[in-house]
Amino acid sequence: MSRCRVCPRKCGADREHGKTGYCKAPSGVAAARAALHFWEEPCISGTTGSGTVFFSGCNLRCVYCQNHHIAEMESGKVISIGRLSDIFLELQAQNANNINLVTPSHYVLQIREALFQAKKKGLTVPVVYNCGGYESVEALQALDGLIDIYLTDFKYMDSSLAKVYSRAEDYPETAKRALAEMVRQTGEAVFDENGLMKKGVIVRHLLLPGAVKNAKAVVKYVYETYGDTVWLSLMSQYTPLPQVENISPLNRKTTKREYERLLDYTFSLGVTNAFLQEGPVAEESFIPEFDGRGI
């Protein structure tokens, strides 16, 4: 933490002595909510919910972020590694299907230790690493054997979009390397008799307004590289929040036609392992309250 290199930005912030880097994260762990969550893919949430921990700060901080309050460190509480391990066990006791780590990239080392502690104390449910796809391979390797499911975004194949929307022009190549490491660790997806994922990789793509070409390129790369080894999750739930009201085309919802064009292309490639969203889903009600619950 004295010269932080845990994410691809490698900004070198001295987090150990109170300095913050791009992610705005402290040296400890800051989290804004820990509770059962029912709005993930069906194989993650199931009927009893995913034990989800929302971490504060982010190494991307996309301009359109749906969780911008925690990404910008406006919400959250600093907790110890021991408390984090206890939270994992508390969620398991609530009958969570898994432990779901949301935006964990900048806390990899702390999470690693908390998982070691929790597993010694009886944590047995699968662990989900739910991230933006902008990951350091070295950081992911530090988690080898501790993560069962990678639920990762693949936001951009267009580096110009990545630069404008997420200030990460190197996102496409970085995400490719990270995804390769995720697949290496988990292999092909495994489900139980109830359809819950126990091991594997899900690649999410949130279709942005005006960005069908970028979305098609993401699907093409993932499917041509990994085939049915990974599952795709194609999302149409983009919700334009106040911070993008003056940024076109982000200040509108994704249209039904844009999403249909993406699905038509996906099916034309032969993709069968995919989660889709049907009906009107672009609602702020999908965004939980970051009120410190469970922390």
Could you explain how this protein is built, in words?
With 295 residues, this protein is of the alpha/beta class. It has a single domain (23-286), classed as TIM Barrel (Alpha-Beta Barrel). It is built from nine helices and ten strands. It has helices spanning 42-45, 68-71, 81-93, 108-120, 137-141, 159-166, 171-186, 212-226, 256-269, and strands spanning 29-37, 50-55, 77-79, 99-102, 127-131, 149-153, 190-191, 197-206, 231-235, 274-276. Strands 1, 2, 3, 4, 5, 6, 7, 8, 9 and 10 form a ten-stranded mixed β-sheet that branches. The two termini are 23 Å apart.
How many domain modules? 1
Name the poorly predicted regions.
Answer: none
- How much of the sequence lies in strands comes to 15-25%
Q: What is the CATH H-level superfamily?
A: Aldolase class I
Please state the average pLDDT score. 96
For the largest beta-sheet, the strand count, sense and barrel status come to: 10 strands, mixed
- What is the strand tally? 10
Radius of gyration (Å): 18 Å
Helix content: 25-40%
- The termini sit apart by 23 Å
Q: Give the structural class.
A: alpha/beta
- CATH fold name: TIM Barrel
SS field, number of helical segments: 9
Per the principal axes of the C-alpha atoms, what is the gross shape? globular
What is the helix/strand order? Answer: EHEHEHEHEHEHHEEHEHE
Given this structure, which CATH class is correct? Alpha Beta
Q: What is the CATH architecture annotation?
A: Alpha-Beta Barrel
Pfam family, one: Radical_SAM
InterPro entries: Aldolase_TIM, MJ0674-like, Pyrv-formate_lyase-activ_prd, rSAM, rSAM_sf
Keywords: Iron, Iron-sulfur, Metal-binding, S-adenosyl-L-methionine
Domain Radical SAM core: 53-182
